[in-house]
Amino acid sequence: MSRGLVTLVNPNKVHPPIAPYALDVLTTALEHAGYTVEVVDLTFRRDDWDVVVAEYFSVRQPLLVGVTVRNTDTTYALEQRTFVDEHKEIILAIRQRTTAPLVAGGVGFSTMPFALVDYFGVDFGVKGPGEVIICELADALVEGRDPRSVGGLLVNEGGGRVVSTSARLPVAGTVPMAPAGYNEGRLWQVNRVDSYHRRSGDPAKVDNLAYYRWSGIGSILTKSGCVYRCSHCVEPDAKGTQFARRSIAAVVDEIESLVAQGVHDLHTTDSEFNLAIGNSKALLREIVRRKDADHSGPLHQLRLWIYCQPAPFDEEFAELLAGAGCAGVNVGADHVRRDLLDGWKVTAGGSQFYTFEDTVRLVELSHRYGMQTMVEALFGMPGETRETMRRCVDDFMSLNATVTGFSLGLRLFPYTALGVRMAEQCAGVRTVPGLQSNTAREPIVLRPLAMCSGPVEYERQFMFDDDGNFRLVCYFSPDLPEDPARVSDPAGRWRQSVQFLWDHIPAREHYRVMLPTVAGMSEHDNNYADNPFLLSLCRLGYSGAFWSHWRERHSILQEAHDRGVLEAVNG
């Protein structure tokens, strides 16, 4: 007998649609705990979402409503498009139609959870993996217990005050940034044993096959959290500072289930797949073992796409990837200059863990074993100049990767090392050269947590100005090739740096690069949200990582135009 109904809502309107993996994880845990779970997925109903919400809650009175927030914004410094305003509109509509308490979570939510609990006006929040905490919260509601008895829960006390209950299990060796729960291990929050239930065709659950048909890619998680401390990355804070490795058998069972449903292309969502490489190799060996044991099994249709770092990546790993069905490797190499990577791409101990030679070897090995590659650079960290960009572009272009992507600028979040450092340097009294927002109306002055009334105030300043208007804080190195007036303008656009990249790379090579753009510069950019090329890909039935089709984008867009798909996308 069911203990009650829990409704999970996906408010993400971004297309190409991304399957809300988190809701499958939560559904698995809640069903095991005896609850009935229904998913209200608004991604495919983004134009009439209000009708969907009204109709659903007119006939359902759940015990608890959970809302997942995958992204707060595009995190694309040259666009700065927010999503939380749309999410709030949906949450308010839910509020009007049910008396059930609301709990928010998700990786985007977890980058600034105190501020978003307050902004959304939800009752509760979960920072990091939510499958354990949401079950304990549902239990507390059923049993009439105070939700504050649930460890690791954020509680909205109203009036801008959000508090965190103490974590259920203390984690040795971590240094929390009290009271914000920064830099914590979150192993206890992860279901590492079970295979998550991934379904297709059930209108009350996430429809993974529908997402695959609309996006060309599915997802798989082999571990959560990250022990590394890359200064721009939200993962260790948002997901935990330790690797929560899932059961290898459970992960491969999940892969088999998805492929059998017709979801043949799966992208890893780890941070990153080759970190904790012994575990990754064991998982690949299990895929290979099952393929060898059953020559007609679904795993023979698997096309795996992975995110990884340049190291570790040896020949055994490349061979195992190829044997498991890996089609492509996306490597976040970010730069070639060791002086820039120092203090940026680092282990928990602060040491660099790869060199450019590692990236060279990764690309060579991947191509040797028949896998495509995408190498990504990220420009704009402190110390970046025209010459450091030139060196990185030249070295990366020499790799002859399938695609090379160049991004410019960094979205700052409250608990990344770079965000914390910028707040400390501002100290509430000055701006730091390079702080920028497209909607800034005055110099951006951040305050460290110690100078704020609490985490709500501290986190808010990375998304809102003092008047409550959206102001996404980004950073571009002030040493880039820009006019001094633009650098000193908090709303200035780093146009000359973008133009330098377009000019430095010969036009004959543009077919194999993704370049940053500013408005009006090009129809092509490497932003995901509502990108005409990506939407055309999906509607034409292409599958796999979108970058694997980038070299053919002109012919694909022409095909989309000829078939009327492009007009439908733009319309």
From TrEMBL:
Keyword line: Iron, Iron-sulfur, Metal-binding, Methyltransferase, S-adenosyl-L-methionine, Transferase
GO annotation terms (biological process): methylation
Record-annotated B12-binding domain positions: 2-148
One Gene Ontology CC term in the entry: cytosol
Domain (Radical SAM core) ranges: 212-465
One matching Pfam family: B12-binding
GO-annotated molecular function: cobalamin binding; iron-sulfur cluster binding; metal ion binding; methyltransferase activity
UniProt keyword Chaperone, yes or no: no
Cofactor: [4Fe-4S] cluster
Source domain of life: Bacteria
Protein name per the record: Tryptophan 2-C-methyltransferase
Name of the coding gene: tsrT
